[in-house]
Amino acid sequence: MSLESEVDAVKIEFAKIKKELRKKIVGNDEIIEGILTCLLCNGHALLEGPPGLGKTSIIKSLGEALHLEFSRIQFTPDLMPADIIGTRIVMEDDSGKRFFEFQKGPMFANIVLADEINRATPKTQSALLESMQEGRATVGRDEHQLPHPFLVLATQNPIEMEGTYPLPEAQLDRFFFKLIMKPPTREELLEIIDMTTAEEPEAIQPVVSEEHIHELQRLVRMVPVASPVKNYALRLVMATHPKAEEAIDETRKYVRYGASPRALQSMILSAKTRALLHGRVSASFEDIRQATPACLRHRVILNFEGEAEGITTEDINGFLLETIQPE
Q1: How confident is the model at residue 1, as a pLDDT?
Q2: Nearest to 237 by CA among 190, 288, 165
Q3: pLDDT, tens digit (0-9, with 9 covering 90-100), for 14-69
Q4: DSSP sequence for 210-240
Q5: How confident is the model at residue 2 (pLDDT cuts 50, 70, 90)?
Q6: Exposure winner among 28, 185, 281, 296, fewest CB in 10 A?
Q7: What is the fold of 3-197+207-212?
């Protein structure tokens, strides 16, 4: 099968997934596409938004549509690493002989919702992020492979920050995307009311198997990216570094540290995935521009002047996309 025909098939599958999700989810097209992008790129996403916007519903519904195992972990200050990874417990066989057996924790699922990750202590956060990075969990001297595909979707509430442990910059960098949950519009609210206060919505049917997801992950890597498109992504990332030659004026004035190489990797892979999901055989400049905010908003560190003047990383992203144009 040619790449063009495979891409057409992916577009059809993407439409099927969205159709199933529409049975329970209203709006949030950008969030759904962002989560699917992370899944196909073997990345993880950090979702930020106030309570009640449907973060859990979106993630759980996506797991149902993809026929993947879903688990939810509510992070609290007293949560320990063993509570999420698992622990060894003493077992006894029929002869009375005792032995240790590893009991897997909720981390061993294809899609893991880490709810309010910033409420857990750094020790527990580190255990989660180590599993995200390595794809395995270490208990004692034994290593246990996590399932594949493996996607962590961590959430945090930007409103209530008292009693939280904000993720350090180095750990934020491990997230492929940072996605912002926006409140629904008036029309979406009316649709939500009709959907949730009338008859029980129709059940979501799995339309994509685990084996097919593996194939889609392989296909993402095959999508070509032209040199000018790669160079455009490179220029955007370099422009976030205040001491770089490509830096824009706003970066030099408001930014302390720019984006890491992971940002460039995320931009290229997400551009490939976006092209694939929209039925195109190669990534474009627009794919890079659409990926830029989610890839950079958690990787650009503002300086004191930027914070004092109320500048946000969203503002920096806007300055970058306005100033740096494709060549």
Answers
A1: 55
A2: 288
A3: 888 888 888 888 878 888 888 889 988 988 999 888 777 777 788 888 888 888 88
A4: HHHHHHHHHHHHHS-B-HHHHHHHHHHHHTT
A5: low
A6: 185
A7: Rossmann fold (3.40.50)
Please count the CA atoms within 13 angstroms of the CA of 121 that sit on its side-chain side: 8
Residue 290 has pLDDT above 80, yes or no: yes
Closest CA to 206 of 69, 55, 112, 45: 69
Token pair listed for 75: 């992070």
Edge-to-edge strand ranges of the sheet holding 45-48: 70-74, 111-115, 151-156, 45-48, 177-180
Give the start-to-end residue ranges of the domains of the chain. Answer: 3-197+207-212, 224-323
Q: Cα 197 from chain centroid? A: 30
Q: Is-contact 43 222, C-beta < 8 A? A: no
Contact by Cβ (8 Å): 73, 112: yes
pTM: 0.86
Rounded mean pLDDT, 204-208: 81
CATH T-level assignment (fold) for domain 224-323: Helicase, Ruva Protein; domain 3 (1.10.8)
Please give the Cα distance from 138 to 312 (Å, whole number): 38
Chain length of the chain: 327
Q: First-to-last CA distance in the chain?
A: 34
Residue corresponding to tokens 């999508």: 223
Residue 107 tokens, joined: 């981390």
- Name the residue with higher pLDDT: 171 or 265: 265
pLDDT digits (tens, 9 = 90+) for 217-234: 888 888 889 999 999 999
**What are the C-alpha distances in Å from 126 to residues 72, 134, 260?**
18, 12, 20
CA distance 275 to 75: 35
